[in-house]
Amino acid sequence: MTITAFxxxxxxxxxxxxxxxxxxxxxxRRHTKTGINDEDITSVRMRYxxxxxxxxxxxxxxxxxxxxxxxxxxxxRDFDEAYKMLEEKGxxxxxxxxxxxxxxxxxxxxxxxTGFAINVGEHIRDHE
Length: 128
Hints:
The protein is of the alpha+beta class. Helices cover 16% and strands 45% of the residues. Strands 1, 2, 3, 4, 5, 6, 7, 8 and 9 form a nine-stranded mixed sheet that branches. It is globular, with a radius of gyration of 15 Å. The protein starts with a strand and ends in a 5-residue tail after the last strand.
């Protein structure tokens, strides 16, 4: 399995205040994806570049959740391969059987038997 991105993801009902906190820490908005799952769900990718050139990312997702969730965002080259491997390790799809297709990506949140979450996704390179 090839991992192309691995960073924290914060899912919250108050994304603007979380984004403001990370902006105060020096992070900048990189891109925003809206209308995820055909709902009022928005994800903002943020980036910080240190004085030494090291780069860090955090994703902040606005969603109707009862309390904040911290997960790991893991982008891969082959979604099906990663999904199968996580299932074999006991992870369950937090959306039941639903897989989110946005046109530019395919993704879902997988939850471990002990409760931590990985947002696994694949960017579709040939989307229009």
